[in-house]
Write a structure and sequence with these properties.
Layout (H helix, E strand, L loop, with lengths): L2 H4 L12 H17 L5 H32 L11 H11 L1
Helix pairs in contact: 2-3, 3-4
Length: 95
Amino acid sequence: MTDVARRPNLSDPSLYINRELSWLGFNDRVLEQARDGRHPLLERVRFVAISETNLDEFFMIRVAGLQQQVASELPNPVPDGMTPEEQISRIKEST
């Protein structure tokens, strides 16, 4: 098999993870730590605070940026193939 035959098609959207949705997944994992009774209470409170701060920043910066992309009506290709509208829709489903 040649090197060309083994190389993946890097334009294939299935090879990429959406940055915004991945970020929400990370924040969910932080919040899971807050639900974990094995952690001391104050550590759990700290995880809630971290998650809240992250989510607040996410909406102020990332979602606002996606909304600006939608308003600009310019093509905004991303490697995962999702449009800004699709990303906003998936964010709404996730939160």
